Every structure is written in structure tokens, then in C-alpha cells.
Amino acid sequence: MPELPEVENLRQGLGRTIVGQKIRRVEIRKPKLVSSKGTQRPASLQKKREFIRGTTGEKFISVERRAKNLIFKLSHGKVILVHLKMSGQFVYMSNSNNGRVIGGHPIELSEKELPNKHTHVIFELEKGTLYYNDTRMFGYLLFYPNTEAFLAENHFGLYGLEPLSKEFNLKYLVNALKNKKGKMKAVLMNQKIVTGLGNIYADETLFESKIRPERNASSISRLEAKKLYQAIIRIMQRATKVGGSSVAAYRLLDTTRGNYAREHKVYGKAGQMCVNCHKPLEKIIIQSRTTIFCPRCQK
């Protein structure tokens, strides 16, 4: 699944590509993707009709992001909420034959054929076509007729602060960890604490701040919390700047791949030598997620 830096770069790329364009026609091949966001999603023909009727003729006004969600703002206050989940992908093809622009998870067939068997939603725009492809179909695109209806769903009500927001500061992190039960890795990946940090950046920030991932969150001192806070800010800023990590060949909308994977110190490096102490990194499982750390450097 893409993490915050990857989704932010995709947001920027989509903004440069589709904002200002009118939606001339919408085709929905898999109604369940526009029906709901649950694991079990029965297809709703009513939701399909509402989506098509509500978006056709509208313009893309902006592309925003909250955590790993994309929020398409349309004219007349309409909204489309998108989550790529494990294998979602956007492909934009210009009418001027300037080539295809791909963002999201790699789907080999999309390099050769569009639409294809993995194409589930198609937006025909004024200057090109935007395809939503998804091999596993866990992603979703939900339509809301106005901002009030979107806000009423309270999608982000349980989310914590964005790690690069002004509100996310040392005081917030200290208070969030105070008396918090659970292992540090699990706490960092809890969307109620830090939104969008994800598996990769949780491992990297814990390594940089020298905190073991299985430590109890309530045992973290203020000094350790300060080091963790500084690590989160530095790593997330850097990862966003260079386009994310592109693990599992995740691609940005301009077809490039993020460069931060080259700077990983621990993620995906179990058994390799620690860059600090030159001893082997170890792997454990925390909440079903692979976790890499240095048992000597992290305390």
C-alpha cells in the first residue's frame, strides 16, 4: 500500500494533470468500487447511477489529500473520495498523443492496453482520459453530491494529526504517547496517533530515534519522544521531497519512481549489517507487520 509521501506526490501529479478539465463522460465497469468502502461491498446500481449522473459535466477543481486518501473536489461543491488500497492505479492519457501518465501500483497490462480487464472506472475529459485500474479491487471511489454530505460521513473523525501539519508538535506527541498501552511500532501505525506514517516510515523513524519497536509506548521518556518527533519530521519531509520510497514498484503520476528507498536504513534489510554498529538487523512481527530493527542500537 502506498504511504503518505507516495500519495502526496500522486496528489500533486493529478493536480497538474486533471484540474480544470470537464468530465464529459463516465463509465463504471465495476459498480462495487463506487458503492461503499467496506471489505464486503455488494454492487449498487443506484450508487453507480448517482456517480455517473452527479459527476458528468462537472469540472475537477482541486485534488486534496487526507492521510492516504485522495479527495477530488468538483464544481458545485461535489466530492469524490478515493483510496487506492493495495493495488489501485490511475492512468491519464492525453488526446494529443503525448503518451500515458501513470500513478499508483504497477499493472503491466496498462503499459500496453487501455482500457483493459483491470480498468473499472473511466473518466473521459476534455483533453484526455483518466482510467482507474485495480487488480485486487480493494480500492474505492465514493461520490458525494455536496460538501455537507461528505462531511456528514465523518471519514476522518478518528484520524490523528498529519505528521507534517503545523499542529503536529512535540507536545502533541508526548501527550499522545502518555499512558498509551501497546508496542511503539503498533502505536505509530495507529491512525489515531499519527496519520499516514505507515510500515516503512515507522521502522525508519524508530531506528533513527534509537527506540526498539516492541517497547511499551508509555515507557518512552520526553527526551526519547523529542528524538522520535525530530526523526518523523526529518524523514517524512525528505521522503516527500524525493517522491516516496516506491517499494513494490509504486509509481508516481509522472512515471518516475521515488528515490527514498535508497536511503532506507532498516526497512526491508533484515539480515543485513546495521549502518551504525555493523551487526545484523533482525526481523520480528508486530500486529502482522514485518518489523526490522537493530537490537544493539535501539533500546
TrEMBL record:
Protein name per the record: DNA-formamidopyrimidine glycosylase
Database matches in NCBIfam families: fpg (TIGR00577), PRK01103.1 (NF002211)
Ranges for domain FPG-type: 265-299
GO molecular function: 8-oxo-7,8-dihydroguanine DNA N-glycosylase activity; class I DNA-(apurinic or apyrimidinic site) endonuclease activity; damaged DNA binding; zinc ion binding
Signal peptide region: none
Essential cofactor(s): Zn(2+)
Reaction catalysis annotation: Hydrolysis of DNA containing ring-opened 7-methylguanine residues, releasing 2,6-diamino-4-hydroxy-5-(N-methyl)formamidopyrimidine; 2'-deoxyribonucleotide-(2'-deoxyribose 5'-phosphate)-2'-deoxyribonucleotide-DNA = a 3'-end 2'-deoxyribonucleotide-(2,3-dehydro-2,3-deoxyribose 5'-phosphate)-DNA + a 5'-end 5'-phospho-2'-deoxyribonucleoside-DNA + H(+)
Domain (Formamidopyrimidine-DNA glycosylase catalytic) ranges: 2-139
Family under the similarity heading: Belongs to the FPG family.
UniProt-listed GO biological process terms: base-excision repair
InterPro entries per record: DNA_glyclase_Znf_dom_DNA_BS, FPG_cat, FPG_Glyclase, FPG_N, H2TH_FPG, Ribosomal_uS13-like_H2TH, Znf_DNA_glyclase/AP_lyase
Keywords carried by this UniProt record: DNA damage, DNA repair, DNA-binding, Glycosidase, Hydrolase, Lyase, Metal-binding, Multifunctional enzyme, Zinc, Zinc-finger
Superkingdom assignment: Bacteria
Complex formation: Monomer.
